[in-house]
Amino acid sequence: MYNNINTTILQDERVDGADKTNGKAKYTAEYQLPNLAYGVFVTSNIAKGTIKELDISKAIAAPGVLDVIYYANCPAVPGYNPNASERPKNVNEWRGHKVLYDNKVRFFGQPIALIVADSFENANAAIRLVKTVYDKEEHETNFDVLRKDPTKLKPAVTYKRGQEKAFATASKFIEAEYNIPIEVHLPMEMHATIAYWEGEDKITLYDKTQGPKSTQSTVARTFGLQEKNVRVIAENVGGGFGSGLRSWANVPAACIASKKLNRPVKIVLTRPQMFNLAGYRPQSWQKIGIGADASGKFIGITHEAISNTSKYEDFREGIVNVSRFLYAVDNVDTKYNVLPLDLSTPIWMRGPGEASGCFALESAIDELSYQLNMDPIDLRIKNFTDINPENKMPFSAINLKDCYAYGKEKIGWKNRPTKPGTLKENGMHIGYGMAVGVFGAGKGTASVRAVFSKDGRLVLECAVSDMGPGTTTSMTKIASTSMQMPLDKIKFKLGDSDFPAGPSQGGSGTTSTVGSAVDMACKTLQQNLKELAIQFAPSFANKLITEMEVKNEYIYLTTDASVKISVTDLMKLSNKEVIDITITSNGNNPSQMKYTSNSFSAHFVKLGVDPKTGKVKLLKVVTTGDNGKVISPKTARSQMLGGVVGGIGMALTEQVQIDHTTGQIINSSFGTYQVPLHSMIPPIDVWFVDKPDYNVNSIGAKGLGEIALIGFSAAVANAVYNATGKRLRDLPITPEKINLKKV
Ligand code: MOS
């Protein structure tokens, strides 16, 4: 009954799979340049204050140390100048913490000096020789306490349609609070930069980034360079999940040191530094009020949230937005504040905003379903809408009901107890839960170069990066379909700012945005081949382009397939070495503007809770995606698997812990910040609706990076309630919180 995508996996190889498993694929920190020097950060051990003294004399005399750069000896960085009128033309202020700039400490673990040495070991060994005296100030890091003080919050952003707090007028309603701690991305590859000035005004960087163009423009506008004189290479990226969506302290620091020392400098963050020098999902508090009439029709949703930012930047995400548009409801009001803390700045992390928002909303809907004595899936169907109630535009496609049907059958929803805490298997309390995820599916601008050679090979180039989802594979597949030519004759190159401009890889937008450009480039190329055939191949003279097709490396006459010429013969005949084109695909076209586009997911969980220990054991996961056409079944499935694993971490284990007496993160290692273990991952059934959505782009594909994770933590919380009768609204759901003795 269901098209099981798994059956097609074997025919779908990852084009970069071999290089990534045999070690041939190079990551930023692995590049070696002649005369390379190594930089390591000395970091603060207070959270807030002023550095009174920073003694570098011993460190600078240590073996191999070339320099110790700090605020007193750091060369001027044009973009660091806070006064816009005094900055050189074309230089914008550096966004973020100005590393090595002043004697202020803004968060615990802030870089306060950069030791540069002839080896990584020598640089590291000198860290302890730097002596610092601080003037400490009171810091504020305790979100749970400070968020209750309205004077500490920035002004709220509010939204309202219909009546405010209408939920409370409904016959059944719930109102509850939800807490999510700081979570960190922790990609396998640490953030790293190698910077090398090739001249006074020309620099090359190897950088771990989700956007070579983004790093390029950051460096250009910080150092007053022309963009074309800044080259950023990020050929392979070992994960990101959002941490690579901006440039962190390692980028300007490497540029500064390389310039000062006139040699290439490499900086690689340590794993502990990955906890506070590369962003994180902000801590959040949310309150949801949701009410329905006796039939289950939603009467109103009120969604409030506060998340943290740093004291020096304002980071916000769309945490309450989902409540405005996912379900049919007339009365919605939302309110969102941020709380500045003496911590480093957060950044988008997989499913930014919605991952937090859906945990609260999808938990609340589940809770309401018990009040209504209604199946939670039926409750969602009751409030289903195919018109976005916020902007009143139809969804270009929404197939959530198909996801519900598949998930229900495959998880065994019929076995779900309607009364929580009543089903036991093998001595465990058994529960079933589900929840929905949603994320925007836009299409942006991208340029692609396509070079078709006389030997029949096609090379495509775009400056986007691939942080791991398999972009090279999916783009090669799109090109293969558009060109109607074999995969192995196509090479898609990315990860270099010298290539035509592409987006940062983020917001689940790469396939839609870059894929559309690849499709457009291939169709343009086919057009060019047809024109050449008319011009040079006698059998096509006087034929029309509309009666020709390019397929299987031949050009055919559609009305008579015996009239044909191979593309390689045509190239020879026309005496061409290459056809070399660059096209730009712009954002949404007018016909797409009639719609609002999102990707959707529905996650289903069966789990057991040990009555003695309170430990949760996931037994089965069914995860379903409604993201238009699936371009590459293998990489798409892997995305969903990764999202589920991330979701399990969010639900059960992950939390940054801060010692508020010092402001220090005290669990900045894999030993103490718990990510899911392999043994915690149950069998996962991944399924896609796989219906093309041509309203969003020509390839019919929407993104799935975010929806893979969004909503998953609520599915777990809902299943824990179903198993135990205990509603847990604070993540992660640890055994202490379940504490069944108190049930
Ligand atoms: Mo993602 S948070 O868009 O890298």
Put the structure in a nutshell.
This protein is of the alpha+beta class and 743 residues long.
Q: Could you say which small molecules are bound to this protein?
A: dioxothiomolybdenum(VI) ion
C-alpha-based Rg, rounded: 28 Å
How many helical stretches?
16
Question: Tally of extended strands?
Answer: 29
Low-pLDDT stretches: 5-11
Largest sheet properties: 7 strands, mixed
Question: Structural class of the helix and strand makeup?
Answer: alpha+beta
Strand numbers in spatial order across the main sheet: 3-5-1-12-9-10-11
Distance between the termini: 41 Å
Overall 3D shape: globular
Helix content: 10-25%
What is the average of the pLDDT values? Answer: 96
> How large a portion of the residues is in β-strands, by DSSP E?
25-35%
Index terms:
743 residues; alpha+beta; seven-stranded mixed beta sheet; five-stranded mixed beta sheet; 16 helices; globular; binds dioxothiomolybdenum(VI) ion
What does this structure look like?
The protein has 743 residues and is of the alpha+beta class. It is 23% helix and 26% strand. It is built from 16 helices and 29 strands. The strands form 7 sheets. The protein has a 7-stranded mixed β-sheet. The protein has a 5-stranded mixed β-sheet with strand order 7-15-14-13-8. The two termini are 41 Å apart. Bound molecules: dioxothiomolybdenum(VI) ion. Dioxothiomolybdenum(VI) ion (MOS) binds next to loops.
